[in-house]
Amino acid sequence: MKNVLITGGAGFIGSHVVRLFVNKYPEYRIVNLDALTYAGNLANLRDVEDAPNYSFVKADICDFETLCRIFVQYDIDGVIHLAAESHVDRSIKDPFTFARTNVMGTLSLLEAARRHWGGDWEGKLFYHISTDEVYGALELDQPEGCAPYGSDFFRESTKYAPHSPYSASKAGSDHFVRAYHDTYGMPALVTNCSNNYGPYQFPEKLIPLFINNICKSKPLPIYGKGENVRDWLYVEDHARAIDLIFHRGRVGDTYNIGGFNEWKNIDIVHLLIRTVDRLLHRPEGASDHLITYVTDRAGHDLRYAIDATKLRNELGWEPTVQFELGIEKTVRWYLENQEWLDTVTSGDYRRYYEEMYR
Ligand code: NAD
Ligand code: DAU
Prior knowledge:
Elements: E1 3-7, H1 12-24, E2 29-34, E3 54-58, H2 64-74, E4 78-81, H3 88-93, H4 95-117, E5 125-131, H5 165-184, E6 188-193, E7 195-197, H6 206-215, E8 220-223, E9 229-234, H7 235-248, E10 254-257, E11 262-264, H8 265-279, E12 291-294, H9 309-315, H10 323-336, H11 338-344, H12 348-356
Parallel strand pairs: 1-2, 1-4, 2-3, 4-5, 5-6, 6-10, 7-9, 8-12
Antiparallel strand pairs: 9-11
Helix pairs in contact: 1-7, 2-4, 4-5, 6-8, 6-10, 8-10
The protein binds nicotinamide-adenine-dinucleotide and 2'deoxy-thymidine-5'-diphospho-alpha-D-glucose.
């Protein structure tokens, strides 16, 4: 495989995947296609933008004609599809945008690939990046002590039961990818991953938002009681899994990717406060007063927990970054990249955030 189209490469996870592929595979041409929405930022890729095997195309995945042109122009053989609207809170306010980008955009990309490949599937692959949120929510039936906080886990065989407009739109896109495999024989793969964290994550998501707010001594809005549980994975571990699955995953199959790392939101908030305060040389507990309990997210899923045993057993993948160390790395990155943070927290994002917490 030579010409790889990565969609959403200017976003959080996409930028880590583009960087990994550009550096690791000089023999590939990596084409990053991104519409540069509020979440896309080419500053995430400064270190690879001049690489000879890298090209950027600004385009919308809903623009079918343009997609068809790009497939021809770069003679694309492989697709790694990450472009999406990705924030649950935004999907609650504006579900149409999520259906458009995540469902119609994915369908447009599939159809452009099908037309270009013309039924000759040799050496071709459409790899779709999805989320564990499509599986719905798990019980919190072991709430005391340490993780795991429940007896059940999301497995590849778990039935889809999405609750938010975001997860419903991702479920729809997953179904279309599998339909293209089953109906036309397109070589396709889907992976469903848990919550990612790390550098370059847009500060509307829990971890970067709270790091930013602790630094600036702003309130930390915890939804509900902070008892919800998520399974966290360092973004570079996800990028490594994507690389492995792109090259060695069984075509037509699904893999769950997760950190074996469940945390209650409130415990993460305390960890973030401790870490930021220590690195800023503030006294211990200085930012505890910023904790603010706010109205719960509508339809807030209680617990996510991925069973990634299949990926471990079949392809030998393991998460490598221990959570407290990953959080320390992440906090240091945000402290050292204040300019990046200030740039992305202006404009559209500032308006959205002010409206949300007015
Ligand atoms: P992100 O919001 O940081 O980035 C999304 C990127 O897609 C941005 O660069 C944006 O400009 C681009 N984009 C949006 N609409 C587009 C359109 N119409 N055409 C072209 N580009 C468009 O998202 P992320 O957190 O990096 O997530 C990437 C993918 O991984 C998504 O598909 C998401 O559902 C999935 N995922 C994310 C997580 C997570 O924890 N962040 C976990 C599992 C799966
Ligand atoms: O599970 C994978 C998913 O993880 C991805 O598919 C999504 O793209 C990604 O955004 C993420 O979704 P979450 O909704 O779990 O992530 P978020 O960072 O928005 O929220 C994490 C938890 O923190 C969740 O229980 C809601 C809570 N939260 C979040 C924010 C932004 C708060 O309590 N306060 C907040 O201000």
